[in-house]
Amino acid sequence: MGLKQIDVDQVSYYDLNNEINIPVDGQIPLKKDQAALTAFLAENVKPNLLTFSSLKEKLNYLIENNYYENGFIEKYDFSFIEKLYDFLIKADFHFKTFMAAYKFYAQYALKTNDNNQYLENFTDRVAANALYFGDGDEKLALKLADEMIHQRYQPATPSFLNAGRKRRGELVSCFLIQITDDMNSIGRGINSALQLSRIGGGVGITLSNLRAAGAPIKDIQNAASGVVPVMKLLEDSFSYSNQLGQRQGAGVVYLNVFHPDIIAFLAAKRENADEKVRIKTLSLGVIVPDKFYELAQQDAEMYLFDPWGVEREYGKPFSYIDITKEYDRMVANPNIPKKKIKARDLETEISKLQQESGYPYIINIDTANRANPVAGKIIMSNLCSEILQVQRPSTINNQQNYDEMGTDISCNLGSTNIVNLMASPNFGSSVETMVRALTFVTDHSDIDVVPSIQKGNHLAHTIGLGAMGLHAFLAKNQIHYGSPEAIDFTSVYFMLLNYWTLKASNQIARERQETFADFAQSSYADGSYFDKYLQHNYGPQTQRISELFAGIFIPTTADWAELKKNVMQDGLYHQNRMAVAPNGSISYINDTTASLHPIINRIEERQERKIGKIYYPAPYLSNKTLPYYQSAYDTDMRKVIDTYAAAQQHVDQGMSLTLFMRSTIPTGLYEWKKGRTDKMTTRDLSILRNYAHNKGIKSVYYVRTFTDDQTEVGANECESCVI
């Protein structure tokens, strides 16, 4: 923990926690975890929590010693701050597991400069968030306090960690930038990567617009070096700009599957790649148009098009071309340099690399753009593959300034806790409060070191509200993951999130008399976005799910029609509203399961630096829920894909969908394995990627493989977008 008063050998909570993993009479001794929690609070927290005689003394100390900003406190009368603290204390918050308390105090609680004492408990951190995001609005601050102390709402880690702190990082830490096909843009892109990594950012960069290796420059043949050297420059930039050694800079580079350098791009991540080109820490993602799936299905040859020739013919960067639509014309155009490969050979290369490393991420770009209600084109995603927003290219001059400034993206994220939101006294009011908290973040995000990101944020006001704890909710209610009832629940839940985020965004637009830029060109403005909700009933389809939503408002066709009218009249403040990010430490603090995917183990084992192993029992684990907690590695991934697809139809952006595979596939899990090897093959991954595409999945994040020697390949937490 870094607190000098603690001698690891003289505390009992680690040993008590580790005893969870030792069955007693064939039972999991969950009481040991409760004993570890009690011991941790008594042996670690209580003796190391700096206490004060009054709230005023505490706040004065935090402000005078540069722990808290003064500005957000001064926006309220002190009597109100006392009222808010009284409300939070009466809520009587308690962590439910040792892991939850440990993670909070290790990673989120404010500590003294010498790292020897805690200055906050969970209630204090919630209070700081509520006051900070309330921005002087007492009613909103109380609502935020209510949502967070009851863990219905969880701000993303950068927001939750930094709110109110004097010496803080940014409230957002996830960015998307693009590079166009010239040296000025490449130089500006590398500088942007350095700057964003310095402030703690995870950065997504698309290289699809860059001309391929060997392409001519100024009529000189075989001059261009292609995308791999730029990847190396970016990897070195992230390694150098690492927040004074506090964290490894993190980035992902995307390349279109029809780019001539695609094979070299994938090969750079292989373990046996030459050290001159090998990419070790940079993540890889592939932009996949529908045409690739079509050609692979036909076992046809596919053409790869050099971006410089495409841009010369079409007058815009390669990323902005609809390749599926233009493919045949591009093949027939003699002015566009191209080369041929077998589509299935490339599909196999993608699967091989996913087996070996978990990469590349897959962005089904046509799926994303078909569902996109906003004018413009989605061209890429972020470090965790859930952000899908339109961008516009920039033109950089020789002075590294903008002749024409386009738009890039920053991510403002938060998550609902499904179990707790389903117990909210007012589902819609809870969601509106969350939207207003996220709106504060987007309004106050001002990333001036990359002006295209600053401009994009100011024009779009984007947010991304998601969810965690789906498997916990299903198990608690004795519903099998991936069952018809589970799919039904997922669809209804995300339909409600969509409805209430639309309502909130419309209300904010009405209050401010302001919409996101280009609202008038969106399918919200002409009303067509709402057609599916007027033509189809997205309410509960099964008796069990109807019972679970009893007492929760389900919008009727008339309600959707009223919302359509209001949105067409007054607009929306936010260009984008929803996204489902991966969850890391913060899901433990919420005592729930991560994101929408199944758990990995009923008793999860975490390796903590300098401490050793810590065990985390699945939420609500009991003899009754045990059968409903099947490991993701033993689950048919089509059930995971079906679950995400049920949510995706209501989510305007994307979701971080991870595929969990075993090196040796359990017998009977996939019917196509009959008569073949029981080992995971490239064919298995290709089938699942195609299934996801057919189900309307916009992106596939990691492929995580549990190997026969009990290790995981592709197991890596996104520290930047993690909620």
Automatic annotation (TrEMBL):
Residue stretches making up the Ribonucleotide reductase large subunit domain: 560-582
Keywords of this entry: Allosteric enzyme, ATP-binding, Deoxyribonucleotide synthesis, Disulfide bond, Nucleotide-binding, Oxidoreductase
Gene Ontology CC terms, in alphabetical order: ribonucleoside-diphosphate reductase complex
Presence of keyword ATP-binding: yes
SUPFAM superfamilies attached to this UniProt entry: PFL-like glycyl radical enzymes, R1 subunit of ribonucleotide reductase, N-terminal domain
Single GO BP term: deoxyribonucleotide biosynthetic process
Signal peptide: none
Gene3D superfamilies hit by this protein: 1.10.1650.20, 3.20.70.20
Cross-referenced InterPro entries: NrdE_NrdA_C, RNR_1b_NrdE, RNR_lg_C, RNR_lsu_N, RNR_N, RNR_R1-su_N, Rrm1
Catalyzed reaction equations: a 2'-deoxyribonucleoside 5'-diphosphate + [thioredoxin]-disulfide + H2O = a ribonucleoside 5'-diphosphate + [thioredoxin]-dithiol
EC code: 1.17.4.1
Keyword ATP-binding found: yes
Gene Ontology terms for molecular function: ATP binding; ribonucleoside-diphosphate reductase activity, thioredoxin disulfide as acceptor
Superkingdom: Bacteria
Family, as annotated: Belongs to the ribonucleoside diphosphate reductase large chain family.
Function: Provides the precursors necessary for DNA synthesis. Catalyzes the biosynthesis of deoxyribonucleotides from the corresponding ribonucleotides.
Protein name (record): Ribonucleoside-diphosphate reductase
Organism: Liquorilactobacillus nagelii
Phylogenetic classification of the source organism: Bacteria, Bacillati, Bacillota, Bacilli, Lactobacillales
